[in-house]
Amino acid sequence: MSPIGIERVNYIALNAKDPEAAAKYAAERLGFTIQHAAPDGTHYLSAHGVDRYSLVYKPGDAHGLHHVSYLVGDDQVLDQAGARLERAGVEVSRHLDHEWEAKPALRFSTPGGHLIEFTTGVHTAIPVAHLVEAPKSGGAKPVVPDHVGVGTADFDAEEKFMTDVLGQLHSSRILGPDGAQIMSFMRSPGRYLYHDIVLVRTPGPALHHIQFSLKNVDQFYETAEALQANGVKIEWGPLRHGPGHNIALYFRDAEGYWFEYSVEEEIILHDPTYVPRTWTVADPHVVDEWNSGQPPAELMGPPPADALLGTDLDETFGTKAAQS
């Protein structure tokens, strides 16, 4: 399947019971800057990359992902993507003035119920975290969102949609003890990044985690120190993942969403010769190549209690199998 034209993640929008408080927490402790507060309560925050905003909190009681926005090359690519989606039987809504300072966009839902936006913005020939200079300000330094992890009960349908309709490629898979695929790391062709979406097998539609890349390892550790100095509990990490080989740490924001800050994500220079790797949960290096310890049960479980954010820890990452 030919590429549909996705270049990279543009921003991630989260439902928030208190968008103002969530935005203030992200600005004061997580390294973001509040750029705009809309009349409806939506708050737009920028990271240290090239985009006007990278993180959005939208008012809503339903805990979870509101939508994830992906950039395409230009208006022509956007129109072609919309036509392709409609030919595939996907219902598409078109928007001219839907978010703060937004350009024309289209939105559609995946089979698993996740809302995706395509729009245009700042084109970069290489990944943003490689392009920008190291941020000079003190504190935490997220640069750009590179991927989002979403869960679905009908894993096969969601994966087929990603490959057959959106033209995504596999970078790696994780198999459970019974051989069933429980995670899929997928990327947009020709864009170098190891993944821009992670699919997770969950009991229902779920937000697993959101990720922001940092510039380099020095800034990773500076950010880790800044988070802790700001009273943010790092609940897992530093560690190095197997899939993607990125150095990562995990924490929660004011709304209980899991954030991943990571660096040194593997890049894929030539799609035709790249061979996706298949991991199993029996491999202790799939979660952390450094084997620094298991993730807390709350991380890959369902925080907060009223939301489906993932499967049971043992089902998702096979910790029992890894320990055997």
Automatic annotation (TrEMBL):
Stretches for region Disordered: 291-324
PROSITE patterns: VOC (PS51819)
The organism's place on the tree of life at top rank: Bacteria
Gene3D superfamilies attached to this UniProt entry: 2,3-Dihydroxybiphenyl 1,2-Dioxygenase, domain 1
Domain VOC: from-to ranges: 8-121, 144-264
PANTHER family found in the cross-reference section: GLYOXALASE FAMILY PROTEIN
Name under which the protein is recorded: Glyoxalase
Phylogenetic lineage: Bacteria, Bacillati, Actinomycetota, Actinomycetes, Pseudonocardiales
